[in-house]
Every structure is written in C-alpha cells, then in structure tokens.
Design the sequence.
C-alpha cells in the first residue's frame, strides 16, 4: 500500500514538473524567437523608460543634447523664434523671439508681447537669470557662446535652414524638444502644401521656356544670390532659372556688364535690400537694355513686416509670390494677400494685414 502511495506521489510530481516546463516554454524562446540580446525596439523602450524625465536630441550639427521634459522657458535666435510661433509655442519664449520688423509689427498690436525683452545680444548669465531652460541657436552661432551656455547649465540645440528640407527638420526638432511634434507636422504640411500647389501648376512648363531670373541682395542690385543659397531653391521651385547659379559663395558681387550679359527676364529684389526699390533699378542707366528692366519685370519681395526669403519654412510665401509674377496666367485665382493673411493668422497669431503687411 505504501509502495503504491509512493508511486502515485512520484507520478504526480513528474506530471507537475512537465506542466511547469511547458508553461515556461510558452513564455520563453521559440524557433522563431531564439534566445539572444534584446531587439532594437525593446532597447529603445527600455532607454525611454530609464530616461522618462528627459529627451535626447541629435541637433543639426551632430551634437547629442539631453534636455528635461516639460520645457517652459526658451530662447530662440534669428528666425528660429518664428518656428516656435509656427508650432504654437510662443508662450514659452522668454523674449520677443521674432526678428526686427516682425517684432515691431507684433509689438504694435500686442501689449503683452511688447513687454517682453528684445535681445540684440545677451550673456549666459542674463539668460540664466531669466530661468531659461533651453536655447535654439542657428548654425552660424559663435561656438564659444554655445559652450558658455552649456557650462552654466543651459542646453543648446543648434539648427540649420539654408534649404527647405533643413527648415523642415529644424521645425521637427523644435517640435520634439517642446513635445509638440504633431504641431510641427501640421506646420510643415501647410508649408509643403503651398509648394505642392505651385509645382502642380508649373509642372508642364519646359525647361527651355522657363524665365531667367536674377535675385539681388543684400548690398545692392549688383549682389547676386548664388546656387549655394536658399534663394536659388526658391527660384527653382517658383519655376525660374537662376542666372547667377554658378557664382561662387553666397551673395556674390557682380559687375553691371555681367548682369547685362545674363539679361534676365525677371529681377527680384530681396528682402534684405531694405529701402532699395524698383525705381532705383529703372533709373540705373547701365541696365536699360536688360529685358527685366525694359519690360518692367522688377519685383520687391514683400518684407515690410518680415522677410519672405529668409531660411525658415515661411519662405514658401516668397516662393508662391515669385511664381505669381513668373506665371501670372497660371495663378490668376491666387490672392497673395489672402494667402498671407491666412498663413500669418494660423502660424503667427495675427493676420498679415493686421500686422501692417504690404504686398
């Protein structure tokens, strides 16, 4: 009897052992999922869990930057404040953030905005005193200044913008840093939508029939936008051919003879030319044989409340404006003032007209 009980006990233990083994096998490795290191997705998930209070970003010059989540106080140099506005995060700026004419225009209609400081230059200590948590710096920022900010504990994300793609990437990185990536994509999609509309309307224009364009600025009519610049991309996307594309450098100094030889069909005066107007070109005796001058095809890029040809996504307004001048018959239904009003209201918070914009 005792032997029978012992046999039954042994049989029970053996059965239990087998059941446990099968159960563990179902949760462990299989032929399709062999044992080994964690998958990339698991590693990413683990990293995010370990650093739940921070965000890691590789900026546009390759620097690894780690910032806390929940950033509420930021500074943004040059046009990068416009991107912060575009993503609806302007309440996080510790200064006005917009550039020159745009800042003045916004100050005139928004007393709270006008009360914010406007920086022409600022020290790391001053930013620290303002409880600045993050700085967005442009690619040409002084490396020493970036180091000084980092040393006092203010992280810096360096961004670029000399191409439309770089501008979009800058918006995405700002969106990631400020935890509003959906807003960044909304902004980018709106900008790209304007470009796509232009491309759709000019796609059947043969290369040999596209107008020759000269883009002047910032010093005089004899300073040309080269192929290395955003303005060259703008010309191409608007359906033109940049006669100065092969010049070296950025703003290349040229002679009147060179401009006469190129003989552009259309001449755009860049925003950076300031007070320089079409009449200054028409009165230049050296240019009277140039087609653009003879045919009065000289246009000033809208700039009285902010540049439309600066390295930021809103340069798409400049692209569409140029396209309406190069191909007026293909854009008869486009009211650039209405386009600008809608865009500014959506991404700056005030309409172009309300800010005093002129086309």
Sequence:
């Amino acid at each position: 009897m005792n032997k029978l009980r012992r046999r039954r006990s042994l049989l029970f233990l053996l059965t239990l052992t087998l059941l446990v083994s099968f159960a563990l096998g179902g949760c462990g490795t299989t032929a399709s999922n062999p044992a080994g290191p964690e998958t990339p997705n698991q590693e990413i998930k683990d990293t995010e869990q370990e650093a739940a209070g921070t965000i890691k970003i590789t900026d546009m010059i390759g620097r690894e930057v780690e910032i806390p989540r929940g950033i509420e106080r930021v500074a943004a140099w040059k046009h990068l404040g416009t991107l912060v506005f575009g993503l609806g995060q302007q309440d996080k700026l510790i200064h006005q953030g917009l550039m020159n004419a745009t800042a003045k225009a916004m100050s005139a209609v928004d007393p709270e905005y006008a009360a914010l400081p406007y920086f022409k230059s600022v020290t790391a200590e001053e930013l620290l005193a303002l409880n600045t948590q993050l700085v967005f710096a442009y690619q040409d920022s002084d490396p020493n200044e970036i180091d000084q900010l980092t040393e006092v504990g203010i992280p810096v994300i360096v961004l670029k913008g000399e191409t439309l793609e770089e501008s979009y990437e800058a918006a995405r990185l700002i969106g990631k840093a400020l935890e509003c990536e959906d807003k960044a994509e909304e902004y980018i999609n709106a900008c790209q939508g304007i470009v796509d509309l232009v491309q759709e309307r000019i796609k059947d224009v043969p290369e040999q029939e596209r107008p020759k364009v000269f883009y002047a600025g910032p010093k005089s009519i004899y300073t040309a936008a080269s192929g290395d610049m955003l303005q060259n991309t703008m010309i191409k996307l608007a359906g033109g051919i940049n006669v100065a594309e092969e010049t070296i450098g950025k703003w290349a100094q040229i002679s009147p003879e060179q401009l006469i030889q190129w003989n552009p069909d259309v001449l755009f005066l860049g925003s950076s030319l300031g007070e320089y107007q079409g009449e200054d070109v028409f009165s230049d005796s050296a240019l009277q044989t140039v087609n653009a001058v003879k045919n009065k095809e000289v246009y000033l890029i809208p700039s009285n409340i902010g540049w439309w040809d600066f390295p930021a996504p809103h340069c798409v307004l400049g692209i569409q404006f140029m396209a309406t001048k190069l191909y007026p018959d293909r854009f008869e239904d486009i009211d650039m003032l209405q386009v600008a009003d809608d865009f500014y209201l959506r991404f700056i918070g005030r309409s172009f007209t309300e800010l005093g914009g002129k086309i």
User: Anything to note?
Assistant: The chain has two domains: 52-179, 191-347. The longest helix spans residues 2-27. Residues 1-38 have pLDDT under 50 and may be disordered.
